[in-house]
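Troubleshooting entry. Yesterday's outputs looked truncated, so today I'm pasting the complete records for two proteins to confirm everything comes through intact. If either block looks cut off, that's the bug. Protein one:
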Amino acid sequence: MAFAIKKNIDENIQYFHKKLSVERNFDIIYRVITIGGRRSCLYMVDGFAKDEVVQRILQTLMGTEPQKMPASVHELSKKLLPYGEIGLAKDSDSAVSQLLMGMTILLVDGYDQALTIDCRTYPMRSVEEPDQDRVLRGSRDGFVETLVFNTALIRRRIRDPKLIHEIMQAGSSSQTDIAICYMEDRVDQELLDTIKMRIKNLKVDALTMNQESLAECIYPHKWYNPFPKFKYSERPDTAAACLLEGNIVILVDNSPAAMILPSSIFDIIEEANDYYFPPITGTYLRLSRFFTFLLTLFLTPTFLLLMSMPDNLPPYMEFILPAERVNVPFIWQFLILEFATDGLKLAAVNTPSMLTTPLSVIAALIIGDFSVSSGWFNAETMLYMAFVVLANYTQTSMELSYALKFMRIILLLLTAFLGSWGFLAGIVIVSAAILCNRTIAGKSYLYPLFPFDGKEVLCRFFRVRLQHSWERETTEKTKK
C-alpha cells in the first residue's frame, strides 16, 4: 500500500530517505530549506535537473515571507512558483516514480501533497540524419533517444490539434515511457484501443530492448514467421507521413526508432526517397527496389537449379556454366557464403570506425581472391552472392532483409535435395509465409493485392502525383 504524504515534514523526510536510500545513492540529491517560515525538502536526481531552473525556483521560494504563504499547496503552485510545468502528487509511489523519471519533488511542512516540478533534461546526442534511413534529397534530421524531442520533431511537421500524443508506462522496474501517436480523426479506433489495452496489461519487469521487447509483448503470435509485423523508421518525416495516412506510431523512451503499425509488406518496402523526387523518378526507384527484392530471393536458388540440369540449358545460356572445376558442391558454397557474410557484418560492427573501411576492403579482396584461387569457391558463386549481399542493402528494413535470407536458405536446401520439385516447394513455402502472415490489425499482409484494390495497387507500385486539398475539392464539386 502506498504511503500517503503527511502534513508533518519530518515523517515525509524519514520515509523518502528510506525509500530512495539517500545515504547510499550519491546521485539522489536533497536540500532541506525554509519556505515562508516552514521547513521544506527538495529531492532531485543529479544529471536530470536543470541547475539554473532549480536555482531560480529556490531563490523565489526562499524569499517568501510567512504571512504570504498560501493555505493550500495548490495555491502555492499557482502563486509562488514562476514555472510552467508544475504538478501535484498525493502519494509516495507517484512522487517517487516521477522523481526517478527526472522530475524535482518539493515537500513543504503543513501540506499533504508533494509538488512535482518538471525541469528535467536528459543526456542526448544531437539531432542528425540516421545511418540506416538516408535519403538522396530531403530533411536530414532523425529521432534521438529522448522521447520529448522525438514527439517535438513530429509536432513540428503536423500542426494539427487532432494529432494526439498519449503517454503510458510499461515495466515494473524500468517504468519506460511509451508515447502512442495518432491522428484522432483518421486512426482505426478499434486497433488503437487494442494496442492501449495490451500495453496497459503488460506484465514485464523492464523493456530492456525498447521497441523489440514491446513488439514481442503486444504481438506474441506467429514468432516462427520471419516476415516483420511492424515497420521501423528513424526518420520523423516518414513517421509524420504515416500518421497522416491513419497509422499509429509508437515511440519508446531511450530508442531512436519509431514503430509504425499496422504495416503490410508494401508499407515496409516503401522509402522516403520515393517521395523526394518527381513521380517518374520515384516510380523508377520504387520498381527498381521491387525487382531487386525478387532477385535477392530467387537469384542463387535459380542458379543452383540450372546447375542441377546443365544438359537442359539452351545454347545462349551456356555462358553461366562454371569456367573452373567444381571442387565443393554449389549448395555448400552458397551456405558457407551466407553465414560468412553475416560474420563479416558482425566483424564490421565491432571494428573501430577508423579501421572499418580499410579492413573491409582488405578482407574482401584477400578472402575473395584466395578463396577462388584455392578451389574452395567458384567465381560464379562469389559473383552471385556478392550481388545478393549488396542488394540486401536496398531494403531499409533489416528485419525484411533477414526474412528474405531465411527464405533463400530454405529455397537453396530444397532445390539442392529435390531439384525442380524442391524449387517449386520452396516457392510454395515462401508464398504461404507471406499469404498467411497478418498485420497486427488482423488484415492481409499483401493488401492491396489480397483483397484486391486497383486504385491502391496503382499507388503502391507507381509514384503518383500528390493531389492537393484544393484539387480534391474541385474534383468533388465537378462530380456533383
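Protein two, checking that the full record survives here as well:
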Amino acid sequence: MSNVKKQATKMVAVPSHSIVPERDVDSRPVLETRHLGIEFGGLKAVDDFNLTIGRTEIAGLIGPNGAGKTTVFNLLTKVYQPTTGTVLVNGRDTAGMNIVQANKLGLARTFQNIRLFGNMTVEDNVRIGLHNQIKYDTVSGIFRLPHFWQGEKKQHEKTMELLSIFNMQDMADAKAGSLPYGAQRRLEIVRALATNPSLLLLDEPAAGMNPHETAELMENIVRIRDQFQIAVLLIEHDMNLVMGICEGICVLNFGKVIAKGTPEEIQRNPVVIEAYLGKQKEADK
C-alpha cells in the first residue's frame, strides 16, 4: 500500500470555466487549451478539448481505451499540429512550434512505449536531457579546456542529483537497456525532468509496474511536484493512482471531454460511469 497521504486540495473556478488548486489561483496557468482539435482523414480524433492546469497541479487525463488521450499529449507536445484551437504554455501560444521548441518552452513527456537509448548508460540518457542547459563553446570542447571540464562536472553532478530522486545513482554506469522494466520507466521520467520542464506529461507511467512499484511512483510524483514546483499531467488506467494523487481530473471519450472535476466528483459522475461500464441492461435494473 502507498504511504501517500493526500492532503485535501480546494479547487476553485477560474475565468476559463475550469478549476485549479486554490494555491495556484494567483499564478498564470502552466497550460491552457482552447477548442483544441485534430482530424485524420475527416475523422475528429479530438474535438473541442478545453483544459486549464494550475502552476503546481497534479492533474489526470483519463478515459476508455481509444478515447484520444495520447493524441492530446501529441498535440500538446507538437508531435501533431492541431486542426483547430490553441495551446498556451506559460501564457505563450505554441502555434507553429515544433517538438524541440515546445520542450524549451517547458513541456516534457514520457511515452506509453519506453523510448530510451538502450545501448547508452543510464547517466548518458539523463545527460541528453541536460544538453540545452549546460553549455561550453566548440574550442573548449575540442581542446578540452578548463571550461569544458567544468561543464562536464556540472552535468555529472546534476545527473546524479536527478537519479537520486528514484535512488538510481548506483545504476549510473549500467546500460539503460539492461535495467528492469520498472527502472526503465523511472529513468524515462528522470530524463524528462532533466529538460527542466514546467509541465511534466506522463503517459501511463505505472504501466507494467507491480503494486509496490506503483505505490513508490505515487510518492515520487508528489515529491517531484513539491521539490521542483512544477505541474504534472498524467494519463493512467490505474484508478487507485489517479484518485490517490490527482487534484483535478479530465475525462475524455471518443475525443470529447465528458467531465471535469475533483476525484470525488468524477467517481460519482453517472456519465463517466457509463463511459467506463456501459449502460445497464434493462434486466439489471
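Both blocks look complete. Sanity check on protein two: The longest strand covers residues 43-53.
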